[in-house]
Amino acid sequence: MGRARRVVLAYSGGVDTSVCIPYLRHAWGVEEVIAFAADLGQGDELEPIRRKALAIGASQSIVADLVEPFIRDYGFPAIRANALYEGRYPLSTALARPLIARRLVEIAREVDADAVAHGCTGKGNDQVRFDMAIGALAPDLKVLTPAREWGMSREQTIAYGERFGVPSPVSRQSPYSIDLNLLGRSIEAGPLEDPMAEPPEAVFAMVCNPAEAPDSPSTVEIGFEQGNPVSIDTERLDPVSIIRRANDLAGRHGFGRIDMIENRVVGIKSREIYETPGLLLLIRAHQELEAICLTADVARYKRGIESSWADLVYQGLWFGPLKQALDGFLDTTQRNVNGTVRLRLHKGHCTVLGRCSDDSLYDPVMATYGAEDQFDHRAAEGFIYVWGMPNRLWSQQQARHT
Ligand code: ARG
């Protein structure tokens, strides 16, 4: 086909990306396929995955540890943005894609590749995210998408792979499609495709069943600086350790399961189960701290920014100009989001117990009902006279009509 000579493939070790290796070489005549797998804290052994790519025909196999930048540059901005797609999904899968794409493009430059490739199918969001990110970072680079074009069913894909030494999936009985990284787990397909069917307990791995969570609650204190979580229970931790600790705590108490019908970029509705314990805990705490640190108008305006930010991350626009512009707003607003939030985790619930901040706008002498009250009660009269003016005029006018 003469499409490309040397290609860097985003490689996960799964069936589709594995079959991409022989397919690119034998069906599309690519001379050299270089596999690249990203470590995003998914907990998989990456050395076997690296070797697997070589065994099935990759000329080179690269593993990159991206856990730290993933949490610091993708996870933490999402916390600062309280980013929840359609009000619920904290974007654990979506956030990983621009980072993988960035490294993919860098490797392509380093090895002087003339194309990159990924194994996404044509129905999902991830193909959109990869293609959009690569297009923004390297508009000249060709993107090859075998799985979008080969038209094979899953069985045919497995059979094709077997001809070239791609081992068939060990757990062929698992009907689920799972995406996993340190920020969360996404599970779809199989019995979950019936939106009325309750998810079997077996789909969960990060968050325990709330009914089986410990009877005694845990209290946790999260410290923030400029909107970034920096400590748990007064212990200062690096970003990766914060997420690990938060995942562990919330997961143990059954907090962080989501079952939702979401609207994909390609227009269809899909049913996905998420487990994002740490991320949800940290967003909950962050929202609470903002409530005391941001003025009412900034907080109100920020809600719109947050939902635009979540939408564009979901839709693959990470490297676009709107994202940059919204980040400017977020950076400014987060400067005085500093302080501590105390929460309780218990049997699937997360309850805020308290919050404090040196930048707090909460003024006790204004808020109190006690003797120290300094609020000028009489000033309210003039305020209400002016504030109510438009409605009084309107009511008078209505009365004349009837
Ligand atoms: N729906 C989620 C998203 O678009 C997750 C996609 C991957 N899910 C999966 N189970 N493989 O971000």
TrEMBL record:
<dbReference type="Pfam" id="PF00764">
    <property type="entry name" value="Arginosuc_synth"/>
</dbReference>
<dbReference type="InterPro" id="IPR023434">
    <property type="entry name" value="Arginosuc_synth_type_1_subfam"/>
</dbReference>
<feature type="binding site">
    <location>
        <position position="38"/>
    </location>
    <ligand>
        <name>ATP</name>
    </ligand>
</feature>
<feature type="domain" description="Arginosuccinate synthase C-terminal">
    <location>
        <begin position="176"/>
        <end position="393"/>
    </location>
</feature>
<dbReference type="GO" id="GO:0000050">
    <property type="term" value="P:urea cycle"/>
</dbReference>
<dbReference type="GO" id="GO:0005737">
    <property type="term" value="C:cytoplasm"/>
</dbReference>
<feature type="binding site">
    <location>
        <begin position="10"/>
        <end position="18"/>
    </location>
    <ligand>
        <name>ATP</name>
    </ligand>
</feature>
<feature type="binding site">
    <location>
        <position position="89"/>
    </location>
    <ligand>
        <name>L-citrulline</name>
    </ligand>
</feature>
<comment type="pathway">
    <text>Amino-acid biosynthesis; L-arginine biosynthesis; L-arginine from L-ornithine and carbamoyl phosphate: step 2/3.</text>
</comment>
<feature type="binding site">
    <location>
        <position position="119"/>
    </location>
    <ligand>
        <name>ATP</name>
    </ligand>
</feature>
<dbReference type="InterPro" id="IPR024074">
    <property type="entry name" value="AS_cat/multimer_dom_body"/>
</dbReference>
<feature type="binding site">
    <location>
        <position position="262"/>
    </location>
    <ligand>
        <name>L-citrulline</name>
    </ligand>
</feature>
<dbReference type="InterPro" id="IPR048268">
    <property type="entry name" value="Arginosuc_syn_C"/>
</dbReference>
<dbReference type="GO" id="GO:0004055">
    <property type="term" value="F:argininosuccinate synthase activity"/>
</dbReference>
<feature type="binding site">
    <location>
        <position position="125"/>
    </location>
    <ligand>
        <name>L-aspartate</name>
    </ligand>
</feature>
<feature type="binding site">
    <location>
        <position position="186"/>
    </location>
    <ligand>
        <name>L-citrulline</name>
    </ligand>
</feature>
<feature type="binding site">
    <location>
        <position position="126"/>
    </location>
    <ligand>
        <name>L-aspartate</name>
    </ligand>
</feature>
<dbReference type="InterPro" id="IPR001518">
    <property type="entry name" value="Arginosuc_synth"/>
</dbReference>
<dbReference type="Pfam" id="PF20979">
    <property type="entry name" value="Arginosuc_syn_C"/>
</dbReference>
<keyword id="KW-0436">Ligase</keyword>
<dbReference type="InterPro" id="IPR018223">
    <property type="entry name" value="Arginosuc_synth_CS"/>
</dbReference>
<comment type="subunit">
    <text>Homotetramer.</text>
</comment>
<keyword id="KW-0963">Cytoplasm</keyword>
<protein>
    <recommendedName>
        <fullName>Argininosuccinate synthase</fullName>
        <ecNumber>6.3.4.5</ecNumber>
    </recommendedName>
</protein>
<feature type="binding site">
    <location>
        <position position="129"/>
    </location>
    <ligand>
        <name>L-citrulline</name>
    </ligand>
</feature>
<keyword id="KW-0547">Nucleotide-binding</keyword>
<feature type="binding site">
    <location>
        <position position="274"/>
    </location>
    <ligand>
        <name>L-citrulline</name>
    </ligand>
</feature>
<feature type="binding site">
    <location>
        <position position="177"/>
    </location>
    <ligand>
        <name>L-citrulline</name>
    </ligand>
</feature>
<dbReference type="GO" id="GO:0000053">
    <property type="term" value="P:argininosuccinate metabolic process"/>
</dbReference>
<feature type="binding site">
    <location>
        <position position="125"/>
    </location>
    <ligand>
        <name>L-citrulline</name>
    </ligand>
</feature>
<feature type="binding site">
    <location>
        <position position="121"/>
    </location>
    <ligand>
        <name>L-aspartate</name>
    </ligand>
</feature>
<dbReference type="InterPro" id="IPR048267">
    <property type="entry name" value="Arginosuc_syn_N"/>
</dbReference>
<dbReference type="GO" id="GO:0006526">
    <property type="term" value="P:L-arginine biosynthetic process"/>
</dbReference>
<dbReference type="GO" id="GO:0005524">
    <property type="term" value="F:ATP binding"/>
</dbReference>
<dbReference type="InterPro" id="IPR014729">
    <property type="entry name" value="Rossmann-like_a/b/a_fold"/>
</dbReference>
<keyword id="KW-0028">Amino-acid biosynthesis</keyword>
<feature type="domain" description="Arginosuccinate synthase-like N-terminal">
    <location>
        <begin position="6"/>
        <end position="167"/>
    </location>
</feature>
<keyword id="KW-0055">Arginine biosynthesis</keyword>
<keyword id="KW-0067">ATP-binding</keyword>
<comment type="similarity">
    <text>Belongs to the argininosuccinate synthase family. Type 1 subfamily.</text>
</comment>
